[in-house]
Amino acid sequence: MSVVAIISKPQKPELQTLLPELVLWLRARQYDPVLDPVSGNYTQSARIVPRHLLPEEDPQLVIVLGGDGTLLSAARVFAKTGTPILSVNLGSLGFLTEVRLADLYSTLEGWCTKCFTTDTRWMLHSELWRDGKLYAQHEALNDVVVAKGTIARMGDFRVTFNSELAAAFRADGVIVSTPTGSTAYSLAANGPILMPNVDAMIVTPICPHLLTIRPMVVPGDARLTLQIVGIPDQTYLTVDGQEAVLLKVGDELHCSRSQYNVKLVRLGSAGFFDVLRAKLKWGER
Predict the structure, then answer these.
(1) Which of 68, 143, 172, 251 is flagged as catalytic?
(2) How far is CA 233 from the centre of its chain?
(3) How confident is the model at residue 222 (pLDDT cuts 50, 70, 90)?
(4) Which ranges constitute the DSSP H helices of the chain?
(5) What is the predicted pLDDT for the residue at 268?
(6) Angle, CA 267 vertex, CA 266 and CA 270 arms, to 5°
(7) Coil, helix or strand for 38?
(8) How far is residue 275's CA from residue 285's CA, in Å, rounded to a whole number?
C-alpha cells in the first residue's frame, strides 16, 4: 500500500470529525495513512510518526490540514524529498493553502486518477556563519528574516551580492525572500510582488533609517551575504517565521537558491492574480 502522510495544525475543531473520515477514505482506496503527532490526537486508527521522521516513510503524497504556517513547516520537513504536498486551508488567509475544506475529497480524487498539476516553488538556502565557521543552515519556502526583539534600537547591516557591496544601512531588520515569500512579510514591509516562477530573490529592509534605501530584486543565482555589523540584544534569525536563532555581532548570513523545490498539488485553474484578488483584494479600492 502506498503511504500518504498527514500533517495538521493544532487546535482546529474541524479535525475532530475530518481526520477519522479522511483515514477511512484513504484506506478504502488502498492507501496507508501515517499521521504526525498533532493529527494523532484526533484518531487512533492510523500509525503516528514524529513529524521530522515522516520522510523516512517514503509517502507518495503529503496532506496538510491547516494554514500557510503549517504548509511552510511541512515544506521544510520534506524539502529534500520533493514529495507532492496537497494543502487544505483551515486557517484565516490561506494564500498558499488554496484548497478549500469542501474541495478536499474532489481534489484527492483528482490526485488518485492523476488528473492534477503540480506548482513547483523553489526554496531559499541560508547559511549562518559565526567566527569563520558554519553555525547553522536552513531551507525556507518564504523567507529568512533578521529582526530585533523587544529593544527599540536599530541594527547596522551590510549587503553584498556576488562579493560586490550593494548597501550599508541601519534598520530594524532585513528580509530575504523567495518569489513565493514576496506576498508574505516582505509585502507588509513594502516589498514588491513577484510571480512564483520568477527566478529572483528579494532583499527588503525593515524600517530603514535612510530614505534612499529601498527593496532590491536580484537574480535567483546570486550569492547574497548579509553582514551583522551592529545589533541590539535579542536579535534573531527566523526561518519562515518559525525557527529562530539568536544572532551576534559579526555573524554573516549567506543566502542562495536552494537545490530543493516544493511541489504543490493543484486541481483548479486559478492563476496567481486570481488568488491575489481573492485573498488580498488586489486592485480593489
Answers:
(1) 68
(2) 27
(3) very high
(4) 15-28, 37-40, 68-77, 104-112, 185-188, 272-280
(5) 64
(6) 80
(7) helix
(8) 17
| Helix (H) and strand (E) counts in the chain | 6, 17
Answer positive or negative: Cα dihedral of 122, 128, 129, 135.
negative
Percentages helix, strand, coil for the chain, rounded to the nearest 5? 20, 40, 35
Overall pTM surpassing 0.85 (yes/no): yes
* CA-only gyration radius of the chain, Å: 20
Active site (annotated) includes residue 68: yes
Supply 23's cell numbers. Answer: 483515514
* Sheet of 216-219, strands arranged across: 216-219, 200-206, 173-177, 143-148, 235-239, 243-246
Q: Is 124 helix (H, G, I), strand (E, B) or coil?
A: strand
Segment (H or E) for 159: strand 155-161
Cell of 236: 534573531
List C-alpha distances in Å: 87 to 11, 24, 63.
17, 19, 6
Take residue 244 and report the three cell numbers written for it. Answer: 529562530
Amino acid, single-letter form, for residue 92 = S
More confident residue, 160 or 242: 160
